[in-house]
Here is the input.
Amino acid sequence: MRRFLPDTFTILLVCTVILASILPASGAFAGYFGTATTLAIALLFFLHGARLARDVVIAGLLHWRLHLVILLTTFAIFPLLGMTLGLVPDSILPRPLYLGILFLCVLPSTVQSSIAFTSMAGGNVPAAICSASASNIFGMFLTPLLVGLLFSVGGHGGFSWNALLQIFTQLLLPFILGQALQPWIGDWIRAKKKLLMPVDRGSILMVVYLAFSTAVVEGLWRTFSLTDIAVVIVADIVLLAIVLCATTFGSRLLGFNEADQITITFCGSKKSLASGVPMANVIFAGQPIGAIVLPLMLFHQIQLMVCAVIAQKYAAAHHRRATAAEIEQAANPA
Here is the structure.
């Protein structure tokens, strides 16, 4: 049953939301905390850039068909499904929460969990590293553009081009700087993964606290009921189920081998909380983003639980085949 329990980071997220609900940041403190959060997010993306080795990027480019399938799933199939959910009446799925679901649909894939699950299931790990990393790099451009397109088409207002400039200065520029310094500091940063983990998680928790503080002050929990939250959970589950089926069976129909099928399944079905929360903070600057990031936070835990089960099933199947091969070889020695 341990695979169904929330991970430590999810527990910390829940505690952060509770803290923001009881003691929300406001006034001058919120301003200072917002500045500190911006600096923490810049450091987070600097470390992302410094971690990514050049040879991984070069090697990954050779497997372009796999990466193209994952990118189309992440930035085309997901947004189309999100737009379809817009047909659900506001009386069932409140519009602010629907916009949060639409936002998660245009986000890039995760990096750490995509690679971890691919490795656990016996997939193509080098391709997963490259594809997940590429998804986040392209996402810095595609996510704000898709937000501007889909939100304006839906009549919800898009974002100014200033938002794209802010994405560049606050997220992409630190990433580029980290990548430029990667030959000199990359090995050290990768070796200090546990030491630097608080930067990764702490920066996300800071954004979540600030976002929910603003939302609580403006009446988030008075606006949405437990029924509304349950509807979002169901919508997240449906989204994940459809994409998992599409990536699993679609990759088979396209003729990919099993290792690549596993990579496409896990990289194509994920949405990044680590990239999504900072992007929401920039794209929707000055607006309450509590309702925007809530569906993403719920999706984050759902995808971890479901993909953990799938990865273990793949691993068990590999183990059975390997055992059967060993038995056959022992029974029929050359």
